[in-house]
Amino acid sequence: MSLSRAETLINKLISNKLTGEELSELLEGINSEKDQQKYSDALEIYFDYLLRQNQPNGHSKGENDST
Description:
Elements: H1 5-14, H2 20-31, H3 36-53
Helix pairs in contact: 1-2, 1-3, 2-3
């Protein structure tokens, strides 16, 4: 499955590989009512990934917590 343009731009932003032109495109997309949902979805995917990476064995924080 190929990434959407919003996902590609978000990934480049996160990895610090965004060009000035791409940054302008990203900012335009974020400010566009028509495109905001695409950027919101791309960021949600990334943050969900980060949360999963920080939870050992895929458990939510507090699950099986003996403290």
